[in-house]
Write a structure and sequence with these properties.
Elements lengths: L9 E3 L2 E3 L6 E5 L7 H14 L3 E5 L3 H11 L6 E4 L4 H9 L4 E4 L1 H4 L2 H14 L3 E6 L5 H7 L4 H16 L6 E6 L3 H11 L7 E3 L7 H17 L5 E2 L7 H14 L8 E4 L10 H12 L7 E5 L5 H4 L5 E5 L3 E6 L2 E7 L3 H13 L1
Parallel strand pairs: 3-4, 3-10, 4-5, 5-6, 6-7, 7-8, 8-9, 9-10, 11-12, 12-13
Antiparallel strand pairs: 1-2, 13-14, 14-15
Length: 352
């Protein structure tokens, strides 16, 4: 049982993060914000997949204006990601952003930061203070002899203090690195130094193969330590894959009971069925359901039902055929080409 760090509670549109609230899953649109039709389509598909908060890049004034159009068609909070130009942060809030993400270190002078903070105050709009290992200030790098977890924490807290001193505390903190263990260490360091919610993720994690491994290890260690209020799995892939991975990480940690848990055995010499394809297809089928069930896909009938006797429903392969079982008890034997159809029927029975 993971005991979560109790942070302040922040409201973003109509959801709450921090405190005892569920860890929210985030993603970011990978199409131009000005292409509003494409962004809306992508966000709606991500909503359906289980995304709780969405971020879009605001790189120019047209992108800021597009927020007002996008907001009319989506249902989850929309976060504007700003770099360098404080006027874009202000404009994004004017056009309806539910939250902004900035690094005060690259926004400019205190006057520019203050202008952003004052506009956020007017609408009580949360500010996510984001610091990445690639954006550390030269003096901090010099102080610590390079990019380090301690430097990340110091940089983030320095930026937070700037905003606090301007009388604003509706904040979320994000400290990220592509170095997994540096990221883990940084989160453990900052957890007791601030009351604000923490957005966690391994930045620039990579392609689905390597990115999922890095994210699972890093986020598993961070969230396993009770740290983290929102999560993003950063993959060089379709954002839908980020949502799937985030849900699986939270489900594996026992934090979020969303969707069917599919287990499958490794292939071996006893396997006489196309187990790899079968397991992938079962995953695709179960992705359409949000139920607290365990499903097993086993390679043979010799020990499949027995090994997976805790499964609510399962398939055990044979030679051109397979068994469908529940809690270790065989329900029926069917030809291989009918396995998926019969499995789906039995799944529907369980759910109805």
């Amino acid at each position: 049982m993971i005991t979560r760090r109790k942070s302040d509670v922040i409201k973003i549109k109509d959801i709450y993060i921090g405190g005892d609230n569920p860890i929210a899953i985030q993603s970011m649109a990978n199409v131009a914000t000005t292409d509003t039709d494409a962004v809306i389509k992508q966000i709606l598909s991500l909503e359906e997949a289980g995304c709780d908060i969405m971020r879009v890049a605001v790189s120019d004034m047209e992108a800021a204006k597009a927020i007002s159009v996008i907001q009319k068609h989506i249902h989850i909070p929309l976060v504007a990601d700003i770099h360098f130009d404080y006027r874009l942060a202000i404009a994004a809030m004017e056009y309806g952003a539910d939250k902004i993400r900035i690094n005060p270190g690259n926004i400019g002078s205190f006057d520019r930061i203050r202008a952003v903070v004052e506009r956020a105050k007017q609408g009580n709009i949360p500010i996510r203070v984001g610091v990445n290992s690639g954006s550390l200030e030269k003096d901090i790098i010099k102080k610590y002899g390079g990019v380090t977890a301690a430097g990340l924490v110091e940089s983030a807290l320095d930026k937070v203090k700037i905003i606090e001193d301007m009388g604003y505390k509706n904040l979320v903190i994000s400290i990220k690195s592509s170095d997994v263990m540096m990221c883990v260490d940084a989160h453990k360091m900052i957890a007791d130094k601030t009351p604000y919610p923490l957005h966690v993720g391994i930045t620039e994690a990579g392609t689905p193969f390597s990115g999922n491994i890095k994210s699972a290890i890093g986020l598993g260690l961070i969230i396993g330590a009770g740290i983290g209020d929102t999560i993003r799995v950063s993959l060089t892939s379709d954002p839908i894959e980020e949502i799937k991975s985030a849900k699986e990480i939270l489900k594996t940690l026992g934090i979020r009971k969303s969707g069917i848990d599919v287990v499958s055995c490794p292939t071996c010499g006893r396997t006489k069925i196309d187990l790899i394809s079968l397991a992938e297809k079962v995953n695709d089928i179960t992705d359409n359901y949000d139920a607290n069930l365990k499903v097993a896909v086993m390679g043979c009938a010799v020990n499949g039902p027995g090994e997976a006797k805790e499964a609510d429903l399962g398939i055990a392969g044979g030679c051109g055929e397979g068994l469908i079982f529940s809690k270790g008890e065989i329900i029926k034997k069917v030809p291989e080409d009918m396995l998926l159809a019969e499995f789906t029927k039995e799944l529907e029975k369980l759910l109805n």
